[in-house]
Amino acid sequence: MDTILVRGGRRLTGTVKVDGAKNAVLPILTASILGSTGVSTFHNVPALSDVATISHVLAGLNIDVTAQSNNTYVVDAAGELNHIAAYEYVSKMRASILVMGPLLARLGKAKVAMPGGCAIGSRPIEQHLKGLTALGANIVQDNGYLVGTVDGRLKGANIYLDFPSVGATQNILMAAVLADGTTVMDNVAKEPEIVALADYLNAMGADVTGAGTDRITVNGVAALHGAEHTIIADRIEAGTFIIAAAITRGDVFVEGARADHMSSLLSKLEEMGVQLTVQDNGIRVSAPEALTGVEVKTMPHPGFPTDMQAQMMALMLTADTASHMTETVFENRFMHVDEFIKMNGSIKVNNRTALVQKQNLHGAAVKSTDLRASASLVLAGLAAEGYTRVTELSHLDRGYVNFHGKLKALGADIERTGDRKERAEVR
Ligand SMILES: CC(=O)N[C@H]1[C@@H](OP(=O)(O)OP(=O)(O)OC[C@H]2O[C@@H](n3ccc(=O)[nH]c3=O)[C@H](O)[C@@H]2O)O[C@H](CO)[C@@H](O)[C@@H]1O
Ligand SMILES: C=C(OP(=O)(O)O)C(=O)O
């Protein structure tokens, strides 16, 4: 079992470069299913386990995914495709459900294993199904699979989402691009990853406008081709390193961080007293010793991202005055709280709100429960006295490339090892 061992107390300094965004590359790789001629070439693809998982899902559909170099992938979806996405890989990653829309649009049929719940909540998909059904798909559940069929071609429709779900917006959008006629989607998600997906679809020959606003309009086209696309920088990874700098009261340049993708996070950090200088190619972060507590509520973009909630809570633990963190997006995304408490963190949860107060953090043996929880525990470890040992790193590897290596290069006292029981310093 892999372990990260981090000893707190080092001030981070230097430059760290952000990789491509997990939440952009996953839907974009599923969109490549739509390219019935030519190939797609993707640059800045991050070396994440989730990218390997979605590549296996695509391979199972008879799509050729080749890594040309570390970060450049070529996808050839021009051949005859299989329409079945099997449980083995779909069950590993929620985003696999995003093959449904493209398969229905391209083949008129799809059989996709039910993605099921995960640690942060039950994560239903009724908004995906509502939209795909409105476009004319008939979808039933059969033996743990969602089986969808289309009589002829999908047809454009007006679709209102009850909640601006990121995945539902993407799935419906990827179906609508090949539908007959115009689709108008309202109350859609506005995340930068939605804009990136629309950019790639348009490069493939689609006609999509309005991505990044509440309404997306799609004029369906008959066919799409492969295209070249560069994956945007990961705003959540960038935010995580900004907090790593702040929690150690360090001075770090986060190369690739885009202020226009992270305004809510940057505002809240400035409210705490963190100093941020936005430059053309990144953000410089420095932090004074004393930080102020803040009130934060997670919301769909451009609100404060739920994917930064755990990391922000780690920083709140080091602020001089109390903070409140309210999670509104997922019903069960406070699992890191019990682990912070093992590190002497002072946190009281009432329903969806956590009251976070300063108390000196101590190193401890803690367990990752989900992707962002794992990063937040390492962050807390950077600020804690003594050694923190973080296990269950498969979560971390879903969304961070060489997390410990990047922190080490900034001066952190951190190692990633196998299960080395001889490290007696760990409490
Ligand atoms: C691969 C990817 O991009 N993942 C991101 C995506 O997940 P994902 O696309 O799954 O997130 P959604 O925006 O769909 O989900 C947000 C909330 O809506 C609920 N919901 C969603 C769909 C639906 O049909 N019914 C329903 O009730 C979910 O259970 C959740 O409580 O957006 C989340 C919210 O920013 C992020 O945390 C994830 O990192
Ligand atoms: C929850 C996340 O991702 P996913 O939707 O892929 O589980 C995340 O990136 O924090």
TrEMBL record:
TM annotation in the entry: none
Coiled coil: none
UniProt-listed Gene3D superfamilies: Enolpyruvate transferase domain
Positions of post-translational 2-(S-cysteinyl)pyruvic acid O-phosphothioketal modification: C118
A GO MF label: UDP-N-acetylglucosamine 1-carboxyvinyltransferase activity
Positions bound to UDP-N-acetyl-alpha-D-glucosamine: R94, R123, P124, I125, E126, Q127, D307, V329
Domain Enolpyruvate transferase: residue ranges: 6-407
Main localisation: cytoplasm
Catalytic reaction(s) noted: phosphoenolpyruvate + UDP-N-acetyl-alpha-D-glucosamine = UDP-N-acetyl-3-O-(1-carboxyvinyl)-alpha-D-glucosamine + phosphate
Catalytic-site annotation from UniProt: C118 (proton donor)
Keywords tagged on the record: Cell cycle, Cell division, Cell shape, Cell wall biogenesis/degradation, Cytoplasm, Peptidoglycan synthesis, Pyruvate, Transferase
Highest taxon listed in the record's lineage: Bacteria
SUPFAM superfamilies: EPT/RTPC-like
Assigned EC number: 2.5.1.7
Pathway membership, UniProt: Cell wall biogenesis; peptidoglycan biosynthesis
Family of the protein in this entry: Belongs to the EPSP synthase family. MurA subfamily.
Role this protein plays: Cell wall formation. Adds enolpyruvyl to UDP-N-acetylglucosamine.
Protein name: UDP-N-acetylglucosamine 1-carboxyvinyltransferase
Organism: Macrococcus equipercicus
Gene: murA
